[in-house]
Amino acid sequence: MSDRTKISFIGGGVMANAFVESLLAKGIASEDDVMVSSRSWATLEVMRERHHVHTTLSNHEAVQFGDIVLLAVKPQNLERVFADIKGAMRPEQVLLSIVAGAGIERLREGTGHDRIVRCMPNTPAQIGAGVSVWMASPQVAQDNRTLVRSVLGAVGLEIEVDEERYVDMATAVSGTGPAYVFLFIEAFMDAAVHLGFQRDMALELVLQTMEGSLKLARSSHKHAAELKNSVTSPGGTSAEALYELEKGGFRTALSKAVWAAYQRTLTLKD
Questions:
Q1: Residue 21 to residues 27, 31, 133, 148: CA-CA distances in angstroms?
Q2: Which of 5, 11, 154, 243 lies in disulfide reach of 72, CB 3.0 to 4.6 Å?
Q3: How far apart are CA 145 and CA 167, in angstroms?
């Protein structure tokens, strides 16, 4: 990314903070090359004090500042933002939206702009360990896509797709996925406490078990079923535990949860 590429953020919430922090920390953008807009003075004050970037209450002003305009507002606020910025973007600018459920066509109609990238990141972006699935409209040239990769790569892995349905599906898998993982951690901890562990020790046991298992899964390149079978002796403790999980519908419940999240994503597009 060019040293002088400017980035505007419409919205100053958790994800905007994650992007700004990573972009500045990795030298992809300087403080003077970033502007954040929000309706909240308190949000803007945090941005100024924490990151020393430009801030404004005007979405229209923010749009005019950046070469890339990153739209990071809640879905229910999207129409209000459209009213502020429709027709304000220059033809060479790129609109990068991380708004859940907002499709490229809706973004095009709402902004009157053609160079659009729709993206679904996830909350581990806050520590640079996120994953972002994204798709660009045909009007986004290769040099613009390189800029987008730099921005998204600052907060973790980025994966470009060529069909928008994959972004919707990613919303239900990687976008919503941290919630599934955190619920599993909570339930696993509660089970350990039920056995008799102190809560702080239960937390360490659960987190280290999950972290180690994830590292093993990534480094071994083996199918998850093969790794599971390697720790499941006939008639042993793992076999007994897995039997209870399967009997309780663990696999089916997770599948239904992901499907429900996907269906909800589709309703957000209406």
A1: 10, 10, 20, 16
A2: 11
A3: 16
* Cα–Cα distance, 115 to 108 (Å, whole number): 8
Q: How many angstroms separate the CA atoms of 177 and 34, rounded?
A: 30
Give me the numbers of helices (H) and strands (E) for the chain, helices first please.
12, 8
- Taking CA atoms, 95 is separated from 111, 131, 157, in Å, by 9, 19, 20
Domains annotated for the chain, with CATH where assigned, are: 7-162 (3.40.50.720), 177-268 (1.10.3730.10)
pLDDT tens-digit readout, 7-35: 999 999 999 999 999 999 999 999 999 99
- What CA–CA distance (Å, rounded) separates 44 from 36? 7
Confirm if 111 and 82 have CB atoms less than 8 A apart: yes
Q: Which residue has the higher pLDDT, 5 or 121?
A: 121
pLDDT in tens, 209-223: 999 999 999 999 999
List of E strands, the chain: 7-10, 34-37, 54-56, 68-71, 94-97, 116-120, 130-136, 156-160
Query: How many other CB atoms are found less than 10 A from the CB of residue 218?
Result: 8
CA 219 to chain centre: 24
Above 90 in pLDDT, residue 3?
A: no
User: Which residues have a Cβ under 8 Å from the Cβ of 59 and sit 6 or more positions away?
Assistant: 10, 37, 81, 84, 85
| Burial class of 118 by CB neighbour count within 10 A (0 to 12, 13 to 18, 19+) | buried
Query: How far apart are the C-alpha atoms of 36 and 13, rounded to whole Å?
Result: 10
Tokens of 184: 């599993």
Q: Which of 18, 113, 22 is nearest to 63 (CA)?
A: 113
Mean pLDDT of 165-192: 97
